Amino acid sequence: MDFTIEINKEQVPVQSGEYLLDVLSRIGIKIPTLCHMKDKLPTGACRMCVVENKSNGKLITSCSHPVEQGMRIDTQSQRVAESRKTIVELLLSNHPDDCLYCVRNKNCELQDLAEELHVDDRRVRGEKNNYHLDMSSASIVRDPSKCILCGRCVVVCEETMGVACIDFANRGSQSIISTTYNRGLNVSSCINCGQCIMVCPTGALTEKNHFAEIQDALANPKKVVVVQYAPSISVSLAEEFNMEPGLDINGVMNAALRKLGFDFIFDTTFAADLTIMEESTELIDRIQKNERLPLMTSCCPGWVKYAEEFAGDLLPLLSSCKSPQQMMGAVIKTYFAERMNLRKEDIYSVSIMPCTAKKFEAQREEMVSKGIVDVDAILTTRELARFIKLYGVDIHKLEPEITDSPLGARSTAGKLFGVTGGVMEAAIRTAYWKLTGEELIKFQIKELRGLAGRKEAKVEVNGLTLGVAVVNGISNAKVLLDEIRAGRNDLHFVEVMACPSGCIGGGGQKIGASPEALAARMQTIYSADMKESLRVSHKNPEVIELYRSFLGEPNSEIAHHLLHTRYRIREDILK
Amino acid sequence: MASISTILKQYPDGKREHLIPILQAIQEQAGYLSEDSIVEVGKHLQLPTSKIFGVATFYNQFRFEPQGKYHIQVCRGTACHVLGSSTVQAELEKRLKIKAGSTARDGLFSLEVVACIGACGLAPVISINGEFHAKLKPADIDDILEHYRNLESE
Ligand code: SF4
Ligand code: SF4
Ligand code: FES
Predict the structure, then answer these.
(1) Does A179 reach chain B within 8 Å, measured CB to CB?
(2) How far is CA A95 from CA A125, A148, A204, B67, B142, in A?
(3) Is A225 a pocket residue for ligand 1 (Cβ < 6 Å)?
(4) Rounded CA separation A103/A553 (Å)
(5) B81 located within any domain
(6) Are B76 and B145 within one domain?
(7) For residue A315, how far is its CA from the centre of ligand 1 (angstroms)?
(8) Does residue B63 lie within any of the structural domains?
């Protein structure tokens, strides 16, 4: 501790260089903020966080002001309270004010601030914003009328995701967040990751919902409605119902899905195991031929679109495997349909994903054959929670149930797909077994664990030193791509997940989850991998049966047709 | 795109501080900033097009649509402003069904607000393709537009 400053008449020890906001929050003073983002450079744009410096009588933004010798800070003066309140009143003056009809109702920072700052009458009346809703994207809906110009989406899109398809445009009262030429998000370089939704304080950014179609299908007696859920859902859904972060409610979720009327409940983790069977075959093949290395994962549709836009030169490195969602979709409408004697057209296939980009992925032209899509509709984790509430299912009163055969069994290796590094660990386990005929002795690869943005490891397999790298957050991937372009050649396999932390931090997850909650989700997945016995994809009995009775072997002709895809360089978008 | 590459060649180092001069040169030459031109500039300066658009829209000087056959400049200098140029602008926007800074669907007229055009004695004044129309009232606008439309149909 370097020196002390006065805060609300008390002396508080501080370190030089610390931001006032951090000091205040450390000593238990809650300061309202809007533009502030943890771990990002402060912009000081919204002025929500003002405090009064009594030593010079100025109102200063605590998020962007480092502590200074001699500061005498008052966080509670009338000036401070009035100033903050006025900001909210101004923001509300042109806001649509249709809270009751907004998906973010009761989960909105603007509402919270209005309440906390005692905004209880309409002192400022302005003309209401009236911008076009941008519904052009398959994943993201933008409603600029609800935007309060905090700039958080711009920061996350540029700095975390390295995409930068949105920015401030115009100035003064005309300011908006805009794509290039205010065109639809669908022709921008947006990768549909949804990280902007995760940071948006209001309902200005939301996901495109498929509620109506799903409700129709569930109500249609002629449809067999099948649902799959991604590995990370069971460890994130609990928080939507105010249960402890990281609690795994897989069984209860199965029961809830049955109550909603889904006819068959499958676990996408099964398809993660299937992905590993295919992708490890591809890895071994490329290593043996020493071509197109490092192999890069293709299960994240945000990353795939990014690569198509910004890494066209490296597209040949991408695995040709479809993502688990799409593999599962394809298997449901072929293998499962055949076994059940169903026509493809009679199956309605829903998936529950931690991800908004999955909505884009499902409607890619490569995922449609003869007019039939692999997956018909997607719910994010958040949307599943709303769906469960809509149908009046009380999740707290349900007894756990199990998934359905023949696509319900899973290994914990597949479950690891939910966290950054998990695809890699799962793949290494199976590749090792394929190459040596033995199981790895130490399953867990410590270097690949945890939520760091970038991890690397070397694994010895039969005299080969396998070099692997794992990145999450596209800005981290960018650095690695540049190393590969510059000739780095010690890597065989690279895993990329667009979202920070991987799918547990996906753009379809609960908004406002703390870093501790994310760590708890991760821990639950890791502890399943410690406790359970089926820990490798190649021993999943239902995967083995699928190959035995239907696919033949990995990368067989039929497997290739159903489970693999292709990519294209995207020149036709505004980068 | 040949002309744009000529402009970009004058800034071979691709430094971002050249963004504004480059945009000005393009507008000078083409009359506006097209999407294609911004994409080229983005590649040259390694800048996302959203940022270029953001910067360009910050300044009033840039246009994002080609000018109409008849380009109307509404003077908003002090003298014009005091004598009611805003009502003239409002009338133009209403008649043409466009906002200042854009071009009518049929491509005939485009509208721009400019700072003083140095004809304060004529305030409020507009200029159409360089021709001044002086001491205007909103009620005059209809006739003026009609005049240019008639030129077309002759
Ligand atoms: S979805 Fe992702 S890429 Fe698209 S605007 Fe939001 S943050 Fe940017
Ligand atoms: S869209 Fe949301 S995150 Fe982006 S500036 Fe507006 S309010 Fe902030
Ligand atoms: S939170 Fe400090 S200025 Fe916005």
Answers:
(1) yes
(2) 10, 8, 11, 34, 36
(3) no
(4) 46
(5) yes
(6) yes
(7) 21
(8) no
A27 within 8 A of A7, measured Cβ to Cβ: yes
CATH number, residue A111: 3.30.70.20
The catalytic residues of A are 279, 282, 299, 319, 358, 361, 366, 503
User: Which numbered ligand comes closest to the C-alpha of A59?
Assistant: 3
Which of B36, B58, B80 is the C-terminal boundary of a domain?
B58
- Residue A428 clears pLDDT 60, i.e. is over it: yes
**A443: number of Cβ within 10 Å:** 17
Mean pLDDT for chain A overall: 95
A142, A159, A163, best to mutate for ligand 1 pocket (most atoms within 8 Å of CB):
A163
Nearest residue in B to A164, CA atom: B48
CB pairs under 8 A between A and B: 50
Rounded to an integer, the average pLDDT of A113-134 is 90
Cα A132 to ligand 2 centroid, rounded to whole Å: 15
Among partner residues B35, B48, B64, which is closest to A164 by beta-carbon distance? B48
- The minimum CA-CA distance between A311 and chain B, rounded to whole Å, is 14
B49 touches chain A (CB under 8 A): yes
In a domain, B65, yes or no: no
Question: Which of A76, A108, A131 is at the close of a domain?
Answer: A76
Average pLDDT over residues A328-344: 96
Are B53 and A167 in contact (CB < 8 Å)? yes
Look up the CATH number of the domain holding residue A34. Answer: 3.10.20.740
Per DSSP, which regions of A66-112 are E strands?
Answer: 72-74
Q: How far apart are the first and last CA of chain B?
A: 35
Best of A156, A177, A180 to substitute, by most chain B Cβ atoms within 10 angstroms, is A180
DSSP conformation letters of A261-325: T-SEEEEHHHHHHHHHHHHHHHHHHHHHHT-S-SEE----HHHHHHHHHH-GGGGGGB--BPPHH
Can you give the pLDDT at residue A453?
Answer: 96
Residue with more model confidence, A356 or B104: A356
Stretch A315-327: mean pLDDT = 98
**Owning domain of residue B48:** 2-58
State the CATH number of the domain containing residue B53: 1.10.10
**pTM of the complete model beyond 0.90:** yes
Alpha-carbon gap: B143 to the closest alpha carbon of chain A (Å)? 31
- Confidence band, pLDDT 50/70/90 cuts, at residue A1: low
A573 vs B: CB within 8 A: no
Residue B45 maps to a domain = yes
The total of structural domains in chain B comes to 2
* Residue A19 DSSP symbol: B
Same-domain check for residues A155 and A53: no
Decide if A84 contacts A61 (C-beta within 8 A): no
Q: What is the DSSP letter of A132?
A: P
ipTM (interface pTM):
0.89
Type and span of the H or E element at A496:
strand A493-497
Residues A220 and A185 in one domain: no
CATH number (domain holding residue A222): 3.40.50.1780
Q: B122 and B101, same structural domain?
A: yes
Does ligand 1 have an atom closer than 6 angstroms to the CB of A194?
yes
Residue A190 and residue A227 share a domain: no
Short-list A336, A304, A326, CA closest to A375: A326
Are both B80 and B51 inside the same structural domain? Answer: no
Domain that holds residue A49: 3-76
Q: Do B16 and B85 share a domain, yes or no?
A: no
Instruction: Tell me if B85 sits within 8 A of B76, measured CB to CB.
Output: yes
CATH number at residue B104: 3.40.30.10
Reference A278, options A502, A556, A470, A467; nearest CA is A556
Question: Structural domain tally of chain A?
Answer: 3
* pLDDT exceeds cutoff 80 at B81: yes
Q: Which of A207, A227, A250 is the last residue of a domain?
A: A207
For residue B65, the chain A residue with the least C-alpha distance is A181
pLDDT at A324 over 90: yes
